[in-house]
Amino acid sequence: MKTPNFDSTVDPAQLADVRAEIRQFLRNDPATATPHADSWSAFDTAFSKRLGAAGFIGMTWPKQYGGHERSSLERYVVVEELLAAGAPAAAHWIADRQTGPQLLKFGTEEQKKELLPAIARGECYCSIGMSEPDSGSDLASVRTRAVRKGDKWVINGRKIWTSYAHRSHYLLMICRTSDDPSARQQGLSQLLVPLKTPGLTIRPIINMAGLHDFNELLFEDVEVPADSLMGTEGQGWNQVISELAFERSGPERFLSSFVLLEAFAERVRREPSAEAAALIGSLIARLVPLRGMSMAIAAQLGRGESPNFEAALVKENGSLFEQDLSEKVLGEMVPEADPTSNDKFKRLLAEAVLHGPSFSIRGGTREILRGIIARDLGLR
Amino acid sequence: MSDITLIEDTTHGTITDALTNSVIEASEKCTWAGSVWEKLEAQGLTQPSAIAEDPAEAFEIEAAIIRASAATAVPLPVAETALAGWILAQHKIEAPAGPLTIAGLNDADKLSYSGGQVSGSVERVPWGRDTKAIVTIAGNTLVLLDAKAAQITHGMNMANEPRDTLSFAAAKPLAVGGTVEREALLARGAAVRAVQLAAAAARVLELTVEYAGQRKQFGKPIGGFQAIQHQLAAAASEVAAARVAAQQAYRALASDKNVLLASAIAKSRANDAAGAVARMAHQVHGAIGYTQEYQLHRFTRRIQSWRGEFGASAYWNRRIGELVLADSRGTLWEVVSGVA
To answer: What is the ipTM, given to two decimal places?
Structure first.
């Protein structure tokens, strides 16, 4: 049985400067006048460009690629402040969190020079191409195939649940590059594909909140240059796994609905209620330790460690918290959640409830996460 | 290995060496486990503040010793003595030798202090009958009372740990400290119980994972079934949250920032986490976990008892809500992001 390590401590004094900087930016930015629940699903290119111009995207990357060479904990502070403010951060989110770091590790010099500065400026956006119609939680079963022909890869197949593929520039996808059926995981590779490539059709899928976020992607003889391969051929699975500690432990795993809690508190301050105060207390009592866990992981990631077990524990705990938050606030109220309301609280309650089911699905379902934890406990 | 890990391991080893089955059995009838206490006292592990080099280290040592005491379910007031010693040090009172306890934080407790004498009674005093002296509040003054001056009525908690009623009639305190706020002491005790709950929950998870790996049904270890794996995974994330919550309270103590809030959060979180872990552990163990002969109950009975002490979740949740809503910084986020 492995024991998770959450003992890293972070000195808040070291992060006071960056916190003050991002708070000042957010206070003055027009986008924060209308906060969003699940704000990393709210796509606003103008906001991302302003954020990039202010130096808050690609924060940890080398300056030669448009980055700002700041610490991963400083980036953590910026990300949590964006979420706490409900800022519309979806446009640059994936590129900043995942695609950029993968490019830094695996991209060619040309790709790095072309993409990273544009990502850091908040002008270039990326999507993740993992799930397929028949491959969700069982990711290693993906069938979309890339075949090497001369100096090109030719891709055929389908991807699904691809958030904002209709507005992003690039897709970092995983596909099958080998036929050996005994090596499901070894036969996978990562490719970086421009979403405007001929042969690639993007169809919208509307989610239950009425938003166009998801897409289905159809690849019909899509040709990309040989150097679109990210990293090593056949190592796609391991590369994807190494992204997951970043993807699963971040503050977006428990702060997606925080603006709802803030709006609820504003309301309770106006109309005090002992029950509502106790509910807020119980939610804060879960949020503060979760943030402590997540920051301890951020410190480990900053040292180059791979706390995958710890990240799974944060996501498990965080998605339960996020779903309970809107659920319990809804349980406290007369029926007035309304996605179209001018009242911030009523609108955010509707948004948080309608986005709620996705919290324990995206980034690895609750069941997959519990399986990972069980493995580290020594049960599998 | 850090000094702190060394102290935790030493405490753990000292307890497990001395805590024989016969000592455990006797303690279930509220017999004082003197043989274990003497070993701990001889190594200086009963007064953490005394072996620390500075106040911040004292908190780390205290937490380490309390973790080990809870992970072994030692039937002794290790946590209470450490807590009482720390409070006495705050009031520049030298801690007497031997086991100590803390009392007077329940709503019904009333002790008066006038003319240099303490009168009244306090309930549910941990190990009241076994301790040398009691740290408590009389009026709003901190006092140290001689246990010999008390009239004692026996009671116990669900883990058969003594929880006694102590009555004093015009008792002259052994020492008198400054004025104290009841809730500040309650929160300090809450942080201590949070550490105990987190450590006991971690031990319960460990026992359950071990059992699930050994117990076979339908031809395989029950830990091989997803229904069991997922319960244990959910419990592991609760254990982690409780541990971090307790750490945050101790960091707040060491930096003297957000002490009340962080302690309240720690107790609420550890209460709920440990309760959920105990329930899961019994479910996975089946009938054997419900017997005297198997050791799971030594931890789960303590968890269920400790959850109510130094503030149940309902009390602290209401207080956390009041504190964050009234905070002059104006937003929840300012408060939340201020806790390290």
So the answer is: 0.96
Mean per-residue pLDDT over chain A, rounded: 94
Region of B172 please: left (phi>0), alpha (psi -120 to 50) or beta.
beta
Q: Residue A209: helix, strand or coil by DSSP?
A: coil
pLDDT tens, residue by residue, B62-110: 999 999 999 999 999 999 999 999 999 999 999 999 999 999 999 889 9
Q: What are the sequence ranges of the domains in chain B?
A: 1-76, 96-180, 182-336
Q: Using the 8-state DSSP alphabet, how is residue B123 labeled?
A: E
Contact A6 B240 (CB under 8 A): yes
> Does B237 reach chain A within 8 Å, measured CB to CB?
yes
Task: Spell out which residues of chain B touch residue A7, defining contact as CB-CB under 8 Å.
Answer: 247
- Model pTM score: 0.96
Does residue B291 register a pLDDT over 80?
yes
Annotated catalytic residue within A81, A247, A310, A351: A247
CATH T-level fold of B182-336: Butyryl-CoA Dehydrogenase, subunit A; domain 3 (1.20.140)
Nearest by CB to A280, from B265, B272, B324: name it: B324
pLDDT bin (cut points 50, 70, 90) of residue B51 is confident
Please check whether residue B106 touches A, CB under 8 A: no
> B-chain residues within 8 Å CB-CB of A279?
317, 321
B243/B237 Cα distance (integer angstroms): 10
Q: Is A247 a catalytic residue?
A: yes
What pLDDT is recorded for position A323? 95
Whether A285 sits inside 8 A of B265 (CB atoms) is yes
- Kind and range of the H or E run holding B105: none
Q: Hey, what domains does chain A have and what are their CATH numbers?
A: 12-124 (1.10.540.10), 128-234 (2.40.110.10), 250-376 (1.20.140.10)
The two tokens of residue A193 are 């594909």
